[in-house]
Structures are given as structure tokens and as C-alpha cells.
Amino acid sequence: MGTPCAVVWDEALLDYDLGGHHPLHPVRLDLTMRLARSLGVLDGIEVIEPRLATDPELERVHTADYLAAVREAPHTGWEVGHGLGTGDNPIFDRMHEASARVAGGSITAAEQIVTGRADRAVNLSGGLHHAMAGHAAGFCVYNDCAVAIAWLLEQGVERIAYLDVDVHHGDGVQAAFYADPRVLTVSLHQHPLTLWPGTGFPTEVGGDAADGSAVNIALPPGTGDAEWLRAYHAVVPSLLDAFRPQVLVTQSGADAHREDPLADLGLTVDGQRASYQAMREWAERYAGGKWLALGGGGYSLFRVVPRAWTHLLATLLDRDVAPNTTVPDDWIAHAVSVAPDIALPTSMTDGGDPEFRPWAGVTDSPVDTAIRDTRHAVFPLHGLDPVDSRD
């Protein structure tokens, strides 16, 4: 066994910059790494530099025509198609190189696990789960999640579970493996009738010969810690137990937080911390300890993402940060220098309560109805009882 967790990072990952006031601003990554270092979470950790994904690696998920369009877009103007040059996915200089480095970072993290150098690995710049085979979508140029999973399959990994807690449906990863029974994709997200991309209904359960390979838990706007965690625990561990993945891949978008400006769920940093700790437990229990963690969305750049993902790093490294820990003065001073008008958090907690009541059937709560719908759609396909709350 190698190191407990490999951290893939280089400041070159900040080059994935969609420009100006775009919501996916790389400052969130810089602030996360600064906060983790300031709190001592990364003490003694030698980060691993990402490499660029090669064309053959990218082409396991994306078309050659799309790769050519991404390469040429900065030189050919704005009418390039493939979802490029839009408000969500503006063209930027060296777009291919920056995007290939993010994808390569996720492969680099996966390599640490496959080679045995680490049981866990993380690429916070990753999690770009919306990109499709032939077009960009939702701030995502290359789908590093799918690229890393495809790379793992190519190395001989036979069963991979992908767990996505971003507020938006993990549509690109689901699409990439919808007919592949080797990959179980599980997404918890705001209900598709209320949020882009409008997919991720419980009835989306996988393609031909892969029934049950896609799992979708669609939650109503306003869902807070207790109900979100009830849904999470009512669906995910039973499926992982039945599927028994050899690697757990997680997309850890921080945009389900109550302060996120682009969505309407109600989690606190405390609830997010609890979700990461459950991932750690499930990786140990169901995936032989093999856990590949990726970043994702999150658009409260100063108040939420750095704290949430510092908790994620701490969880991966078994250096849990107590919720009532004070945010260090040096981090606050730096953040003020970047954004003097933002009210910054002073603690690693929002005062949230991650305790939840386990699911025991449908009540008058719409979240319990959502749990029922998902369990009835997919549990029988895995030999599980959709009614028995022990499953």
C-alpha cells in the first residue's frame, strides 16, 4: 500500500479560466488550496503534478472532430459550433491545453490508485461532468470524470461506481456509460423540472443490457441537510453493497449549498462535510478503500467552496477539521485582498446539524416521495427490496 491519499495539484490548473465574471472562476481552487495549507491539512503532503491527457485518452469519451474544434477555436473565431463560444462555454486562449490538463489530472489521480501508490487520490480541478462526446456544456470542455473512468476500465478495472453530489445532474457521465454495466452512475441533484440540464429523472435507469446502471435521486428545491442526507443514505449504500465496485469515483460539487447563486438546495458546509465522511466510509466498506475524488461545481467562490473542499481534503487525508475551527487570519487577509467587499466566513462551520432521520417509507415530505421513486425504479434491478428500509 502506498500513501493514504495522493493530491494532484499545480497552479497551471488555474489556466482553466473561462474569463471575466464567469461563475466557474479558478479563484475558488486557489482559495481552497490556501485554506487547506493554512489549516495544516496539507502539511507534509507532496502534491503530484498533473500531465496533459493525450488524444487517445480523450477519444475514449470525446470525438476526434470535437478535439479538433477545441484546438482550433481560439484561432478561428466564434462560429465554431460544438457548444463552444457560448455564454456558458466561452472560448479562451490555449483552451485545449488547459482542458486536457484537468482531464490529465484526473487520470494522474487514477494512476496513483491503479499502481498501488495510493488508495485514495484527489483532483479538485476535475469534476467537469457535463461535457458530452461531441460538445461542451455547462462550463465543461472535456469530461474529465468520464475520461478517468474510461482510463480505469482500459487498465482492467471491472466495476466502477460514480457518485455525483453536485446540485446539477451528472448528465455527461451518465450519457458516456449509460449502456455499460461495468459503471454504476449515481447522481443526487435538484429536480430536473426546476434546474438545468433538465435530465436526471428516476426513470433514467440505464440502457440496453445495463438496466440499473444509472441511478437518479431528484430532490425538490429547498432540501436541507437532514432530508438530503436521508435521501443519500436511503439509496447509495445499498446500491454500493450490491454492486461492489473496485473503485469509487466521486464528483463533489459544492453547489448544493444554500448560498450557491446558481441553484436552490439548502445544504450547509456541515452537511457537505458529513457527505464526504460517508464517502470515505463507503469507499472502505464497499470498494476496498479505493477512492478517486474530483471537484465539480460551486459558485459561492469565497464563502463556501474553500471551506467545503478543505473539509473534503481533510476527509481524504484522515485529518478531519473540527467544524468549530476558526478560519485562519492569514487566509482571511488574502481573501480580503482579492475581494474586499465580500463578507468572509470566520469558522469552518455554518452551524448546521448533519443529523438525519433514516428513511422509513413515504411521509408527507416530498423528499420521501423522491426516495421512494428512485428506490422503486432501480432497487429491483439490483435484487434489492424497494420497500424494506434495511436495503
From TrEMBL:
This is Acetoin utilization protein AcuC. Coiled coil: none annotated. The keyword Cell membrane does not apply. Residues 22-315 form the Histone deacetylase domain. Keywords: Acetoin catabolism. It holds the Pfam family Hist_deacetyl. Transmembrane segments: none annotated. It comes from the Bacteria. Belongs to the histone deacetylase family.
